[in-house]
Amino acid sequence: MKRLILYEEVSLMKEIGFYQDRFVDINEKVVPIQERGHQFGDGIYEVIRVYNGELFTFDEHIDRLQMSAEAIDLEIPYSHEKIHSIVTEGLELSGIKEAEVYIQITRGIFNRQHHYPDGPAVFSMTIRHARKIEATARDKGIDTVVLDDERWLNCYIKSINLLPNVMAKQAAVKAGCTEAILHRDGIVTEGSSSNVFIVKKGILYTHPATKRILNGITRQKVIELANQQGIYVEEIQFDLHMLLEADEVFMTSTSMEVMPVKKIDNIEFTGEREITNKLISEFQKLLS
Ligand code: PMP
User: Fold this and answer.
1) Going by CATH, does the domain composed of 2-129 fall within 3.30.470.10?
2) Which residues are catalytic?
3) Does domain 135-287 have CATH number 3.20.10.10?
4) CA separation for the pair 2, 128 (Å, rounded)
């Protein structure tokens, strides 16, 4: 009997989409050719994790979405509360308990021209199964490559215009790695889709939340947890030399959570991961 219920629950789960003002099948073709997100990458986004049916740091993500919207002179078509109700309804419809919610707002649908008229933005969303990180993968850590940060200077905006990030991730994957660690003139900024932390002599370092990085929600949580644990945090710039000489390196993001780095280019990090492991276990406590 128990098995049967489990089977029914699984079979009811389905990934879904939302476009403009309606729920759609995840594979439905809904984006008009003159959508500015489609033609210009003119829009912003957020990725929010759902653990056991519960939205994690929803308010923080929507606040950052609002900040990104203001930065590009875009008006979000729905209130914070309305977005919450659309997401909640979507989660119920999908039945997915371990989900990744992707929210995107583009500037709308107009005849193609670079400058934009005032007009309604387009809200869209997908709800999909989250990629589960196996404990063994986290124990192992990830391999990374160092690359030039070739992005524009407003990386604090979570823009859907991700071409340099895509190229960096592709180069990492091509090199058999999981992530790229980016630097600007030798200063380590962040990953192609994550933030970077290093530990040296018991101190945690990460790039300050300037315009040169995305101020990750996971990054902010990790800093909070470190402070609670009495780990000293320095939000300062550090260079490639310091990165490669670090005692521990880890990366953070909504989808990777807190992920140790095992290798950077050909340099392997073999030391104890005392602080990384502490922060992983504190972060896991937030999710249960
Ligand atoms: N930096 C970049 C460039 C990213 O794309 C992401 C993930 N969206 C992050 C950092 C991590 O942010 P968060 O912890 O909010 O997922």
Assistant:
1) yes
2) 158
3) yes
4) 25
| Mean pLDDT over each residue of the chain, to the nearest integer | 95
How much is the pTM?
0.95
Q: What is the pLDDT of residues 16-47, one digit of tens each?
A: 999 999 999 999 999 999 999 999 999 999 99
Atom 13 of ligand 1, nearest CA residue: 216
Ligand 1 center from residue 224 Cα (angstroms): 17
β-strand 99-106 against 43-51: which pairing, if any?
antiparallel
What proportion of the chain, given as a percentage, has pLDDT over 90?
93
Tokens of 29: 């073709």
What is the token pair recorded at 121? 């933005």
Which candidate, 154, 153, 150, places its Cα nearest to that of 166?
150
Delimiting residues of CATH 3.20.10.10 domain(s) in the chain:
135-287
Instruction: Give yes or no for residue 11 having a pLDDT over 70.
Output: no
Q: Does the pLDDT at position 105 exceed 90?
A: yes
State the average pLDDT over residues 219-237.
Answer: 98
β-bridge mates for residue 205, sequence order? 198, 234
Burial class (CB within 10 angstroms; exposed 0-12, middle 13-18, buried 19+) of 220:
middle
**Ligand 1 neighbourhood includes 219 CB (under 6 angstroms):** yes
Residue 268 near residue 143, CB atoms below 8 Å: no
